[in-house]
């Protein structure tokens, strides 16, 4: 028996005994040693032992270097312990495994910002809002980096877009006002004829109207999309992409084109479903071939 197999059996047995279960049954369900270390890390964190969790997650990453979840968890623990530079290094190794994803780039940006790497943080936040122009916190943190770099006009644009997306950012507005910077009335770039859209697809008219009312009362579209949307809507906070009008059903394209960016969300009935939609706009104009 190899050392790795022995580790799996021993730790699984300990976990089963500790939980009052049957060790034999637990062993049959053990995936691998890396997963065991990740499970131990979660238990250490729940028990308030972050340094022990750090050790377990380093072991998990060493055993399964191609598993993004372990590396992300490791980065989070490092950051919480104050090791921002190490957290950044882990995230920078993570991104090639996952490709460009808005929420991972956002986490990297916050780590870079905490470490004082302002230019690199700005780069990460700009990538976030390019991928997902409905990511309000991405705009807020982009405004922060731009403010620190002295690009006050662009900071005002970013803060205004965060506000349009439902994140007021009162402190950011105050700091900009102290510098004599007012939020621009139209902070977005030209959409090039595309329809940048966020959406929540619902099956019940009553629920759709309830959510529309909650939006009118100040709740954020992103939060409702994550709570009630379909899987992709939950992941993206409702952003479904930059749509080409000619590729949509004509009546739907006409309804969406009639909306101006950042008009109040609207309800559209389509094929028995209810679409809660809002047209938004990009940070930078789309590239045309």
Automatic annotation (TrEMBL):
<feature type="domain" description="PpiC">
    <location>
        <begin position="192"/>
        <end position="281"/>
    </location>
</feature>
<keyword id="KW-0413">Isomerase</keyword>
<keyword id="KW-0697">Rotamase</keyword>
<feature type="signal peptide">
    <location>
        <begin position="1"/>
        <end position="25"/>
    </location>
</feature>
<dbReference type="Pfam" id="PF00639">
    <property type="entry name" value="Rotamase"/>
</dbReference>
<dbReference type="GO" id="GO:0003755">
    <property type="term" value="F:peptidyl-prolyl cis-trans isomerase activity"/>
</dbReference>
<dbReference type="InterPro" id="IPR000297">
    <property type="entry name" value="PPIase_PpiC"/>
</dbReference>
<dbReference type="InterPro" id="IPR011990">
    <property type="entry name" value="TPR-like_helical_dom_sf"/>
</dbReference>
<dbReference type="Pfam" id="PF13431">
    <property type="entry name" value="TPR_17"/>
</dbReference>
<dbReference type="InterPro" id="IPR046357">
    <property type="entry name" value="PPIase_dom_sf"/>
</dbReference>
<keyword id="KW-0732">Signal</keyword>
<protein>
    <submittedName>
        <fullName>PPIC-type PPIASE domain-containing protein</fullName>
    </submittedName>
</protein>
């Amino acid at each position: 028996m190899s050392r790795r197999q022995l580790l799996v059996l021993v730790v699984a047995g300990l976990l089963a005994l500790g939980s009052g279960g049957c060790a034999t049954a637990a062993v049959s369900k053990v995936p691998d040693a890396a997963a065991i270390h990740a499970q131990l890390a979660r238990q250490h964190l729940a028990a308030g032992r972050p340094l022990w969790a750090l050790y377990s997650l380093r072991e998990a990453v060493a055993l399964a270097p191609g598993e993004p979840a372990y590396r992300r968890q490791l980065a989070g623990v490092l950051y919480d312990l104050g090791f921002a530079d190490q957290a950044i290094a882990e995230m920078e190794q993570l991104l090639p495994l996952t490709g460009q994803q808005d929420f991972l780039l956002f986490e990297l940006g916050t780590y870079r910002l905490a470490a004082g790497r302002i230019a690199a943080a700005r780069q990460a936040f700009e990538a976030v809002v390019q991928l997902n122009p409905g990511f309000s916190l991405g705009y807020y943190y982009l405004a922060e980096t731009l403010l620190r770099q002295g690009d006050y006009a662009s900071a005002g644009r970013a803060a205004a877009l965060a506000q349009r997306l439902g994140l007021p950012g009162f402190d950011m507005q105050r700091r900009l006002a102290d510098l004599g910077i007012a939020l621009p009335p139209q902070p977005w770039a030209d959409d090039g004829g595309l329809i940048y859209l966020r959406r929540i697809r619902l099956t019940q008219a009553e629920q759709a109207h309830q959510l529309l009312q909650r939006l009118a009362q100040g709740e954020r579209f992103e939060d409702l999309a994550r709570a009630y949307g379909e899987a992709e809507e939950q992941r993206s906070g409702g952003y479904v992409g930059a749509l080409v009008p000619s590729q949509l059903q004509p009546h739907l394209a006409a309804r969406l084109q009639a909306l101006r960016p950042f008009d109040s969300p609207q309800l559209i009935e389509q094929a028995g479903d209810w679409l809660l939609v809002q047209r938004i706009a990009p940070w930078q104009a789309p590239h045309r071939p």
